[in-house]
DNA sequence: GCCAACGTTGGC
DNA sequence: GCCAACGTTGGC
């Protein structure tokens, strides 16, 4: 089993929304690296750090779990969607997404600053300069540390 | 296949 | 709202 970090802007989709909805298709990823992780590497049961980006403050808000493996992202075919991609066809989809299920919400957000302040996490991808990848792998040991920091 | 121009992400 | 860092596009 693998460990991941997935970013979402809470104004668009927060951990509270996931808690309410139970599961969600992780639509709208339009970056090949992020897509490849979802398409090739994610398996049902993989654990996810749910990260709030563009938030005040940004940070890990809780845990999620991969509940279904990759399928074509429906929004690429939808002309009305902001994620519409004219180059994609149903025969040859370009974008894929996984289904993510709610895990746990941290009692308190583990902020980006908290992550930076923890020396044991300094290798974490999300802390590297210029790291913009919205779906990224996380080391098991880093995952466990962040989970503890979140009180779980 | 290079690289300048452009668009996006995301912290601040 | 700014802007650094990065990814993508398209002319050549």
What features would you describe in this structure?
It is a single chain. With 152 residues, the chain is α+β, with helices and mostly antiparallel strands. The chain has one domain (3-130): Roll (ph1033 like fold), CATH 3.10.590.10. It is 22% helix and 32% strand. It contains four helices and six strands, in the order E-H-E-H-E-E-E-H-E-H. It has helices at 15-21, 32-41, 112-117, 140-149, and strands spanning 3-8, 23-25, 47-52, 59-72, 96-111, 135-137. The chain has a six-stranded mixed sheet with strand order 2-5-4-3-1-6. A hairpin with a 6-residue loop joins strand 3 and strand 4 (59-72). The mean pLDDT is 96. The protein binds a DNA duplex (12 and 12 nucleotides) through loops.
Brief descriptors of the model:
DNA-binding; 152 residues; 22% helix; 32% strand; alpha+beta; six-stranded mixed beta sheet; ph1033 like fold; 4 helices
In total, how many domains does the architecture comprise? 1
Name the average pLDDT: 96
Strand order of the largest sheet: 2-5-4-3-1-6
CATH superfamily: ph1033 like domains
- End-to-end distance: 19 Å
Brief characterization of the structure:
This protein has helices at 15-21, 32-41, 112-117, 140-149, and strands spanning 3-8, 23-25, 47-52, 59-72, 96-111, 135-137. The protein is α+β, with helices and mostly antiparallel strands.
